[in-house]
Amino acid sequence: MARGYPDQIHLEQMSFEEVAAAIAEGCTTVVIPLGAVEQHGPHLSLGMDADHADALAERIARDRGHTLVAPTIKVGCSSHHLPFPGTISLRPETLEAICLDYCTSLAGHGFKRLLIHSGHIGNFPVIKDMLGRLRDAVPPDVEILAFSDSTTWIDTWRDAVREAKGDVSAVGGHADIAETSLMMVIRPESVRQDRFEVGHLGGLSESDLELVWKNGIRSVSPNGVIGSPFGSNREIGEACLAAVAELLIETFESATKAAGARR
């Protein structure tokens, strides 16, 4: 069993007495995972990003110890995927309002460190924009940290795929070899291997990104895939999960140490 208290780390599965006891024993850090309900090509389920966020949150909490996991905010900002049936998208101000209510509620109970991450890269700009306002809304002794570096995230996937002897050119960031492989680990029954299709290959240029945000992802990829799922396997999935979890853990630890040094 990983270090730390308690054995149960999922806040929603605990009673209020168990949460109070955990806080009293120094369990004052909470991970807040964000996801999305959006298309992931013909071969993955709409809830992939929420499943991914769940899995990363558990790894972060188990590694850190004395850390709980808040209920995942499953729906995110996915307006660029709305032409695909089933996608649900929040307005940025709606997602911010939900995060604000999470943070103020948790801070009010005595949690002192709130760690926000997203399994959906499309939430990153919104997270970056809202972070200062979230911090202003809680007492000064409550630390809110968030990860929003999409370039480093995708580079970490590329390194993990390379180390697992996968095809790095198939990494694109959406329903690609990395996301498909990690879903083979997290929820293998959700991967429709008979529906694999190549999507937009190569990195997205600035003009590509402008098209995506203005006209939706179909403007650069008719099937909604950025990259390719071909070559996906569990080994690559384990490598991608471990690498991104470590990236988040190290980023949060470094930010906490930097904040402590400034005090």
UniProtKB/TrEMBL annotation:
Its cofactor is Zn(2+). It holds the Pfam family Creatininase. One of its GO terms (biological process) is riboflavin biosynthetic process. GO terms for molecular function: hydrolase activity, acting on carbon-nitrogen (but not peptide) bonds, in linear amides; metal ion binding. Gene3D superfamilies: Creatininase. Keywords: Hydrolase, Metal-binding, Zinc. InterPro entries: Creatininase-like_sf (IPR024087), Creatininase/forma_Hydrolase (IPR003785). Belongs to the creatininase superfamily. PANTHER family: 2-AMINO-5-FORMYLAMINO-6-RIBOSYLAMINOPYRIMIDIN-4(3H)-ONE 5'-MONOPHOSPHATE DEFORMYLASE, 3-DEHYDRO-SCYLLO-INOSOSE HYDROLASE. This is Creatininase family protein. It comes from Rhodopseudomonas palustris. The lineage of its organism: Bacteria, Pseudomonadati, Pseudomonadota, Alphaproteobacteria, Hyphomicrobiales.
